[in-house]
Structure formats: structure tokens, C-alpha cells
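quick one: nicotinamide-adenine-dinucleotide bound model?
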Amino acid sequence: MNIAFFSTKKYDQDFFDSTNTDFNHQLTFFETGLNEHTASLTKDFNAVCVFVNDDLNAATIDLLAKNGIQLIALRCAGFNNVDLKAAAEKNIKVVRVPAYSPQAVAEHAVALILTLNRKTHKAYNRVRENNFSLEKLTGFNLYGKTVGVIGTGIIGQCFAKIMLGFGCKVLAYDIKPNEELKSSGVEYVELEKLLKASDIISLHCPLNEHTHHLIDGNAFEKMKDGAMLINTGRGALIDTSAVVEALKSEKLGYLGIDVYEQESGLFFNDLSETVNKDDDFLRLMSFPNVLITGHQGFFTKEALEQIAQVTLQNLTDFENGAALENEVKA
Ligand code: NAD
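yep, here:
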């Protein structure tokens, strides 16, 4: 297959090039994202390989179809950025990498919790400046706390098991409860009960029309005072204006996010010499109890190897007319 890769960084090229020695596809890497303005680059290719912030709306897909693109290969799990109906109408198949080291994202969620709680990021800077004061570094024990997991799919399950290991009581909300987790000691409850009872809430459900702004002003009202909210799912699961208000009123005690509603255009880029004009983002960064990472939950060696392997296998399956195990349908 002749594949145009979009939104690529050097690490994407390195992992895909080395894995491709077993597949022999023709890979062309573009740094730019894919959207209706860049879709013209796909002439002469059979497939595109895209990532989380590429914008495959109906207009982009129309242009891809005109250029003869037959397959959209997502090198990620989420597919909220693809208009699946438009792709089906143009007879373009969509495949993804449903599970790549789910531990990578689950462990990153735990890293956000531990950092926010024990303030290791602040301690690191203090000690380097010969400041050994412990003032304002007080944390709390995770042992015995109640953790609410929203979405117990592949990543949420891993996360729930890690938190059980800390000695936490784990509550979960999912439209399809997982029996194995129940027998491990996780209690499934309604969303409202989870919001009311949890000291820490972690989001692991997909972004879709039912989960958009799942955490809004109403949800914050129901939460315990001083609760911690962690989001490694997708930015728009949280209403950004509502979270800013919840932090200002001190209803929310801690916020740890790896994804942000308006992350497209910000994340994955070095913007250190540019003026950040996103006022919501700057407001979030002004709070001492907010920790933001730039969508790096997936970013481990193991996950990158699996992403390359599964993506190239998806492309080979399509080329050979084999069943598409990882197809996403409207
Ligand atoms: P998954 O499909 O295995 O699990 C999602 C779970 O959410 C399922 O159990 C599903 O039943 C549940 N769910 C669906 N709708 C729901 C709703 N309305 N309310 C409650 N639960 C609902 O997905 P996964 O692999 O565990 O990934 C979860 C999400 O994590 C992805 O959709 C993606 O957005 C995000 N993700 C982020 C990163 C990162 O680097 N930060 C990396 C990979 C995935």
C-alpha cells in the first residue's frame, strides 16, 4: 500500500520505518495534520494514516474519496475525529488500533494522581533550589480512598486494578459493566452515586454525542468538595468553562488532564516561542492544583511499537482483502 501519514513526528517515522521492514508498504510522512485544506496532498496514495487531532470531517473525506483514498488507518484508539457516516457513504473503510498497551494510559492517569497529590513536581523544583521546606506539600493517603472510574473498557479496567492495588475502594460507571472487574471487587453504580461518593474520579470512556461534556456544571455540583478529577480520555468529556468555575469556587480540589477540549493546534507542537492565545488554557494553568500534560498517556516504547505493528497489519489485511478485525463502522 502507498500510504500518506499525517501529523507525524520523528518518533512516528522511527517506529513505523523499523516495523515496516516486515511489511514493505510505501510510507510517506507529512508533518502537517490532515484536514480539508491539506487533503490535496493525498493524490497518488491508496490510504491515509492519521492521529488524534487530524480532522476527518465530511468535507475532508469527500476530498480523500476524489483522490482515490480507500482506507483511513487511525494510529490511535479513539475515532471521534472521523465522520464515520461520511466515510461509509464514500466507501472508505476506517480501521484503528483498539488496544495498544492500555497500561501506558492507565499508568499515566496514576502518575497524574500521584503528582497532584504528593506534589512531586513542586518538590523537585524546591530541592533543586536548596529549599527543603515541606510547607504546602501535604498530600493524602490513597489507601482507603474512593476512586470512581467512568468507562471500564480496556484502559479503565487496567486503571481500576491499579487503584485496587493501592487499597482504594473502586466504584465504576459504564454502560456495559465488566463482570471480571465486579469479581475483583469493583462496585458498579449509577453515575450520580459515583460523582457523589468519589474522592478521585478518572475518565476512561470514549468521546461521543452521549459523553460530550459528561462532566459539566451539574456534575461538579454533585461531586465531593475538594475532589480530584483526572482526564486521560478526550478533552471534550469535560466542559472547560465549568471546570474553570469549579476550580475558582474551590469545589474541585485537583485537576489532572492529559487531554484538553481545544488541544488541536496546541498539543504535540513546540510553541515555546509563540504567544498562547487560548485564554481557557492559560486560566487552567494559573491554578496551583492543576496539572496538564500534552496527550502523552500513550507515549511509551511498548505502545509505540504496538501502534506501528497493528496499523501496518491493518493496512496489509486491507490490501489482501482479509477480514478487517479492527474496522470501525458508523
Ligand atoms: P474502550 O472502548 O475499551 O473502553 C471504553 C469504555 O467506555 C467501554 O467499556 C464502554 O462501554 C464505555 N462507555 C461508552 N460509552 C459510555 C458512556 N456514555 N458512559 C460510560 N461509559 C461508557 O476504550 P479504551 O481503549 O479503554 O480507551 C478509552 C478512551 O481513552 C478512548 O476512547 C480514547 O479517547 C482515550 N485514549 C487516550 C489516550 C491518551 O494518550 N491519553 C490513549 C488511548 C486512548
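Residues 77-78, 99, 102, 105, 150-156, 173-176, 204-207, 210-211, 232-234, 258-259, 295, 297-298 surround nicotinamide-adenine-dinucleotide (CB under 6 Å).
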